[in-house]
Amino acid sequence: MQSRNSRLNSSALRGAVDLAAVKAAGEAAQKAEQTRAERARQAAAGEAPALADYPLVLDVTEDTFESEVVQRSTEVPVVVDFWAEWCGPCKQLSPILERLAEEYAGRIVLAKIDVDANPLIAQQFGIQGIPAVMAVVAGQLVPLFQGAENESNVRKVLDQLIAVAEQRFGIVGTAAGGAGAGEEAAPRVPADPALEAAHDALDRGDLGGAVQAYQNVLSERPGHVEAKLGLAQAQLLQRVEKLDPQQVRSDAAADAKDVQAQLRAADLDLVGGHVEDAFGRLVDTVAKTFGDDRDTARLRLLELFEVIGSEDPRTVAARQALARVLF
C-alpha cells in the first residue's frame, strides 16, 4: 500500500475511496497538536514565532503537483486556483486569492495551475470552466467554488476550509503569528494503540482485522471521527473484495427492485469513483421499494455518506434527494 501522504491520483480526483487518507488524517492530527504546542511554548518563552517554511503562493505544474499539492496537503490546506491568461474573471479572482494567502500567513497555501499549460491536471479534477477553486487536505479533494467571487465570500470559504481541515483532519498549517497571548498549549496526542492496530491491518491488506480494530475504538468512543471514517471505508472494501463486477452490473440491470443487487452495484460505483452514480442508484432504490427493503437501501446509503464525508457537496445533494423520496 502506498504512503498515505501521496495517494491523490486520477482516481481519487474523481472521488474514489482512498483508505490512505484515514491514516494520513491521524498522523496529521498528531503533527497539528505538536505544532500548536510548539507555538504556545514559543509564546511563553518570548521567542520569535516560527514562520511558515513553505511558499504561500506558488505556480504548480504536472511535474510538481505530487510534491507541491498532494504531499504538502498533509501539513497545510492547499487551495488550488485553476486559471488561464485569456480568462478575464480569473484576473479578478487570482489577486484576491493571492492577497488572502499572504494575509492568512501559513494557514493555507495557494497553488496556481494554468489549465492551458497543464491540461492533464484540469482534466483529472473535472474542471468544466474557469476560474475554478478547489482544495486538497490530507490528500483529499474538497470542492470550493467556480467563477469569480468577491473578497468577502472568498474569505468565508477559506475560513470554513481552515475549520474543516483542523476539525476533521487535525491540520492547522504553520501560521506565522504563533500562539496568541494567553493561548494555552494543546496537549500532545499520544499514539492510539487501537488506531495503530487498524492502520497496521490496512497496510497488511487485512480488511477484517482493520474492521475489528476500528470497531474496538468505537465501542469505547462512539463519536471518534477517524474511526467512523476508517470503519466505513474498510467495510466497503471488504464487501467488494470478491465481487465479480460484470456479474454485479448484469444483476443490477436485470432488476431495479433487487435490493441486494443494487447495493452491490452501488458499492462498486463508489469504489470506482462514481460517487453520484452510487448515491443516485440507492436513492432510486429507496424510491422503488417498501418496508424492510427500503430500510436496507436507506441504511446502506447512510453508510456510504460516512465514506465520502458529511460536508461533501455530493453527500449534501444526495441527502436532500433522499429526504424528497422519503417524505
What value does the average pLDDT take? 79
Arrangement of strands in the largest sheet: 1-3-2-4-5
The radius of gyration over CA amounts to: 21 Å
Q: What is the helical fraction, as a range of percent?
A: 55-70%
Structure description:
This protein is α/β, with parallel strands linked by helices and about 325 residues long. The chain is built from 14 helices and five strands. A five-stranded mixed beta sheet has the order 1-3-2-4-5, with helices on both faces. Helix 4 (about 90-105) links the parallel strand 2 (about 80-85) and strand 3.
Q: Which keywords apply here?
A:
14 helices, single chain, 58% helix, 327 residues, disordered N terminus, alpha/beta
Write the layout of secondary structure elements.
Layout: H1 10-13, H2 20-45, E1 57-59, H3 65-71, E2 78-83, H4 88-103, E3 109-114, H5 119-124, E4 132-137, E5 140-146, H6 151-169, H7 193-204, H8 207-220, H9 225-240, H10 245-254, H11 259-271, H12 275-288, H13 291-308, H14 313-326
Parallel strand pairs: 1-3, 2-3
Antiparallel strand pairs: 2-4, 4-5
